[in-house]
Amino acid sequence: MALGRSGMNLAFACIVIMLALTAAVSIYVNSGRPAIQPSATVSSPDNPLPENHPDIDISPKIAALNQMIAKDPKNPEHQTQIANLYYDIGQYEIAADHYRQSLSLRPEDPNVETDLAICLYYLGQNDNALETLDKVLAYSPGFSQALLNKGIILISGKKDVKAGIRIWEELLRTNPGFPQKAELEQRISQLKGSSR
User: Fold this and answer.
1) Which residues lie closer than 8 Å to 93 by C-beta, 6 or more apart?
2) Fewer C-beta neighbours within 10 Å, C or N terminus of the chain?
3) What is the tens place of the pLDDT at every residue in 160-187?
4) What is the DSSP string of 27-70?
């Protein structure tokens, strides 16, 4: 599941960066016209999924996982799996609650805590998301997903491109074998080019 989450997080990173670049170009080209903010594309309780997303019925899986929790309430994996289901359909508030429950059973799980931070970001809680990622990086220095997502939040959520680039450069320095190294280097180069 962690590899799948990493792929989803990378896709999330690419989409957010492209939105940020599009917004920057739009602002430059339209000078003075209001640009669409990236937060307008974020899921909300009223519109949790994109228009073209197929309907997903997670209720049977949730019911099965709730039965597992009833039998084994101390197993954090069940809470994480429920959180992942809600995350996948854009119900970030509910997903965050289940990630927190998982963390109460197994503290300091960098994958779960990083996913919680992403939920917080989607909920517009950028400072809480950054605090959560800083906590992950305190007990798991160099954790690539936390560094990647911290850069995204700094760039897209806090509009601090320089700090985001520094974090991504740290990611590449501390994880020389990072699987998406070329793509991230390209994004950094684009961001540096657009800030000139």
Assistant:
1) 45, 119, 123
2) C
3) 999 999 999 999 999 999 999 999 999 9
4) HHHHTTSPPPPGGGGS--SSS-S-TTPPP---HHHHHHHHHHHH
pLDDT tens-digit readout, 61-86: 888 887 888 898 899 999 999 899 98
Position 80, amino acid: T
Interatomic CA distance for residues 159 and 152, integer angstroms? 10
Indicate the pTM of the whole model. Answer: 0.70
Taking the C-alpha atoms of residue 126 and residue 150, their distance in angstroms, rounded to an integer, is 10
Name the one residue in this structure whose structure tokens are 């690419």: 14
Q: Hey, what are 157's tokens?
A: 């959520």
Contact 109, 102 (CB under 8 A): yes
Whole-angstrom distance, CA of residue 184 vs CA of residue 180: 6
Residue 90 backbone class (left: φ over 0; alpha: ψ -120 to 50; beta: rest)? left
Q: Which two tokens stand for residue 76?
A: 């954090």
Residues 6 or more apart whose CB falls under 8 angstroms from that of 134 comprise 150
Residues 6+ apart with CB under 8 A from 119: 87, 92, 93, 95, 96, 99
Q: Give 129-136's long-range contacts (Cβ < 8 A, gap of 24+).
A: 129/153, 129/157, 130/154, 130/158, 136/110
